[in-house]
Amino acid sequence: MEPDAATRKESDSLALVAQYSGALAVVFSVATACRAILPQTGYLFSALMFLMAIVLAGTRWHRGPVILMAILSALTWNFVFLQPQFTFLIHNPGDLAVFALFFIVALSMGHLTSNLRQREDALERHHRERESLLAERHRANLLAESERLHRTLLDSVSHELKTPITIIRTALDGLASPNPYTAEITTATRRLQHIVDNFLGMTRVEADALRPNLNWEELHDVIRAATSPLEEEFRSRPLLISGLDSLPLLKLDSRLLAQALSNILHNAASYSPQGSSVEISASFLANSLEISVRDHGKGIPDGAENAVFDKFYRGPDVHAGGTGLGLAIARGLVRSMRGDISARNHPDGGACFTIRLPAQAAPLSP
Q1: Domain that residue 355 falls in
Q2: Is residue 74 within 8 Å of 99, Cβ to Cβ?
Q3: Which CATH number covers residue 308?
Q4: Which has the least CB within 10 A, 72, 189, 232, 266?
Q5: Helix boundaries (H) for 59-92
Q6: What are the strands, taking DSSP E only, across the chain?
């Protein structure tokens, strides 16, 4: 049981005990007061006082305490006020009829007022729940609208940045003489291009705008497309590829898979030391393609195997740049192809990311 529910149940139990105790106290108090003024008022006045107390209690208490109070009031009125006093015997037929009427009226009034209170409580509770639901819906709408505006703004800004970045890169590629400043500008432009591409990719993932376009592909070509934008990152990191020679032609979306692999490889390069290798291995079995990327960095912090795929997640290595969107985009791309991606630490050190995709193999030629 949750802590709030347990606390609420305990509070309700204490309130119910207090009401039962209050019923005893009210009956005793009314009986004592009416007994003191019995010579001046007569026994019918005490019956009215008991009924008034029952009505007031019914507007505040639960049904159980009110019914108990009605029964005790009837018995007390008989025992203390009807002749012969201090006994439950009634000799006068008129008093017996009055007692029976009092008993019925007391129970009925207690029951009716208690029902009325419960209906009022139910209406009030329904009103509170309705207001809470409306407030939640309003907050959800505001959040959705804020997220939509955020994505629209991000998409617009990213598109506006993409054009000048492309022009700068084209101009740099056209420069004939090598220049160290030109190389630095080229590197910075490539990094900026990667950031903009990540923002655009995230908006497409969140907008659920990815639709796989399946074609017969060789995984060699997919990996080549994934690594070609990362020449600078892997200039000082050997890229070891295994398992591709035994793979058949596969029906898959090469563009989405290459982008997902590129993001994973960029992450591996960002969180592994220069000179260490990054390994890509692939296998195909029972219409399922499995691709693993392993680096030789510090690995994934304990318990963060799922969190690394969250938006803006950053590892503890403060020297690694990036937006924290690459792996989140990779997961969205893989899921759009009805696949799955997972992360773990390799037993021999480093992180290992595995993509599993449903894929159809080309039939063997006769």
Answers
A1: 215-361
A2: yes
A3: 3.30.565.10
A4: 232
A5: 63-76
A6: 215-217, 239-242, 250-252, 278-285, 288-294, 340-345, 351-358, 360-361
What are the pLDDT tens digits along the chain (366 aa)?
A: 455 666 767 777 888 888 889 888 988 998 899 888 888 888 788 888 888 888 787 777 777 887 888 888 888 878 888 888 888 887 777 777 777 777 777 677 667 776 777 787 788 888 888 888 888 888 888 887 776 776 676 666 666 666 777 777 777 777 656 667 677 777 677 777 777 776 666 666 666 667 888 999 999 999 999 998 888 888 889 999 999 988 999 999 998 999 999 999 999 998 889 899 999 999 998 889 999 999 999 999 988 899 999 987 877 654 545 677 889 889 998 998 999 999 999 999 999 999 999 999 888 655
Q: Which residues contact 166 (CB under 8 A, 6 or more apart)?
A: none
Question: In terms of DSSP bridges, do strands 360-361 and 278-285 run parallel, antiparallel, or are they unpaired?
Answer: unpaired
Q: Is the dihedral of CA 103, 106, 110, 113 positive or negative?
A: positive
CB-neighbour burial class of residue 230 (10 A; exposed 0-12, middle 13-18, buried 19+): buried
Tell me the C-alpha distance between 8 and 28, whole Å: 30
In this structure, are strands 351-358 and 288-294 parallel, antiparallel, or unpaired?
Answer: antiparallel
Asked whether residue 129 falls in the same domain as residue 34, the answer is yes
DSSP 8-state code for residue 47: H
Whether 234 and 125 map to the same domain: the answer is: no
CA distance 295 to 15: 62
Domain-embedded: residue 162: no
Q: Specify if 199 maps to a domain.
A: no
